[in-house]
Amino acid sequence: QASSPGTSPPTAVTAVQDGPTSILVSWSPSSDATGYRIDYDGGGVGDRVELGADSTRLKLTDLTIGETYTISIVATSPNQLASSPIMKQVRLVSTPAQPMVVTDAVVATADTITISWAVPPDVTGSEVSWELTEQMRRRRRRGVCNAEGGTSGRLPADQNSYTMDKLSSGTSYDITVTVFNPAGNSSTTFTRSTDGG
């Protein structure tokens, strides 16, 4: 005796931290599903959510930082076996600690400043930005250099140094190092000058 055919499972299933205490689950729909069943557990709690066929995402909220959550999603349809479950695990990280800039290791030339920092745990990326200090902005408020500054753009998680170039000689800059993860970001700002030449 043949068993009932199973429902096709959802595809492209992802589960990612989406803020300090939330996980966003998303998927591409199954061709023959009339609904989805999502089970999750972790941190001593568990729950089940039933969604309709047109659903492609679910945000789990009020979760606990530091806990690992196991998420299972199956497609369901009448008169058929549920699909095989797609399993995902997500550990909720907290907002990263401030990056510690190694101030003794800052290297300045007439037009560059090179900095390095200690990367805290659970960081997914970083960014360096810089601008003229307030004193320099006042001094140059009538000049074209008034808005001088820039950003590194997003850097890889494991990068812990950066060289700012095309700077002005003998000029003071406020430099900010920001580290990111899915829970948020933290920054450290300090002031350094290029060599006067």
What would you note in describing this structure?
With 197 residues, this protein is mainly beta. Helices cover 3% and strands 47% of the residues. It contains one helix and 15 strands; from the N terminus they run βββββββββββαββββ. The strands form four sheets. It has a four-stranded antiparallel sheet, with no helix packed on it. Strands 8, 9, 10 and 13 form a four-stranded antiparallel sheet that branches. The longest helix has 6 residues, at 134-139. It is elongated and about 80 Å long.
Q: What spatial form do the alpha-carbon principal axes imply? A: elongated
Average pLDDT level: 90
Q: In what order do the strands lie side by side in the largest sheet?
A: 4-3-6-7
Instruction: Specify Rg, calculated over alpha carbons.
Output: 25 Å
Order of helices and strands: EEEEEEEEEEEHEEEE
End-to-end CA span: 88 Å
Q: SS-based structural class?
A: mainly beta
| Main sheet: strands, sense, barrel | 4 strands, antiparallel
| Unreliable sequence segments | none
**Can you count the helices?**
1
Residue share in β-strands? over 45%
The count of strands amounts to 15
InterPro entries: ECM_Regulatory_Proteins, FN3_dom, FN3_sf, Ig-like_fold
Protein name: Fibronectin
Pfam families: fn3 (PF00041)
Keywords: Repeat
